[in-house]
Amino acid sequence: MSKVNTQMIDEERAKFLRYLTKAGRRVSHGREIVFDQVMRAHGHFTAEELARGCLEKKLKVSRPTVYRVLYDLLEAGVIRETAFGDKHRHFEHVYDEKPHHHAQCIRCHRFIEFPDRKEDEVYHPYLEKQGFKILGHEMHFYGVCRKCQDKEGL
Amino acid sequence: MSKVNTQMIDEERAKFLRYLTKAGRRVSHGREIVFDQVMRAHGHFTAEELARGCLEKKLKVSRPTVYRVLYDLLEAGVIRETAFGDKHRHFEHVYDEKPHHHAQCIRCHRFIEFPDRKEDEVYHPYLEKQGFKILGHEMHFYGVCRKCQDKEGL
DNA sequence: TTCCTAAATGATACACTATCTCATATGTCA
DNA sequence: TGACATATGAGATAGTGTATCATTTAGGAA
Ligand SMILES: [Zn+2]
Ligand SMILES: [Zn+2]
Ligand SMILES: [Zn+2]
Ligand SMILES: [Zn+2]
Known about the structure:
2 copies of one chain form a homodimer. Chain A has helices at 3-22, 29-40, 47-56, 63-76, 124-129, 146-152, and strands spanning 45-46, 79-82, 90-93, 100-105, 111-115, 133-144. Chain A is α+β, with helices and mostly antiparallel strands. In chain A, a hairpin with a 7-residue loop joins strand 2 (79-82) and strand 3. Chain A starts with a helix and ends with a helix. The first copy, chain A, binds a DNA duplex through residues 24-31, 46-48, 51, 61-65, 67-68, 87-89.
């Protein structure tokens, strides 16, 4: 773990605590466990993956609580939800991830990731004119990956 | 129903038949029913909504078949999947809806829609080089809408 | 510290979406 | 028409996420 990473995690933790305090909510056992697991997660993860991980590690937290805390973290701005359009809810932390986009195979659901390009900014003027404060964006391609094409002889 | 609409549906049907023929698949009863229902749908719809509709109308098609045909239509390019990040799979037909993207407010979850721009194609070469067969894409912006900014004094 | 109260939690059941299996039906082509 | 591959339906099943509610716990007051 690099120093930068640790420092960023502390900042995220502070952000989370600030949010909880401001909202009159408690710094509970479950929230600390889930926050910790989220920070250890690499790349994107689904609620279910995180919940399963907690259960497998025998952490003292239940599945409903994992889901509840994920929504807390979402509101606190610690994680964001990526809109993949499949039946799972995907999240990733906000710190330490370079902006990137996703292409997902509709057959096997695997992802290809690719860095974002500034051409995306072509949409900014329109949104700003509407008074929309842009926090981020994601491009999502869907299609069929090479493997699945080979498999199905398309 | 306008004449243009009817004509476009015929074109979509032709596209679907072309796809089926080319892929060595059959023009079956179920595929015709589901195609018809999809063309009657307005705006975005989920697989389950369409399936439920078919069952309620007592059409001679089962739920698994509705799902199967939706994937056919997706690959044929008759419908596209929109990535809303909730737990349902959303679709919309390609004809008569201009390709558009969404900006969603993280506070109130409302959408702003805006037309897509060909600058998005900057990502095509990279994906094609990987053998990824692109069926569609969506840009998803997230941020805070004007109303919510006013409300929260951001 | 101890007590009090509201918030948080866990166990469990549940709702819902989507998919799998496999026996049967159906369309294509010879 | 007969043969064969594809498509389908019924039902079971997997998987994700939520509701309920009795119990526990955090955090402030005394
Ligand atoms: Zn990612
Ligand atoms: Zn694939
Ligand atoms: Zn808003
Ligand atoms: Zn739309």
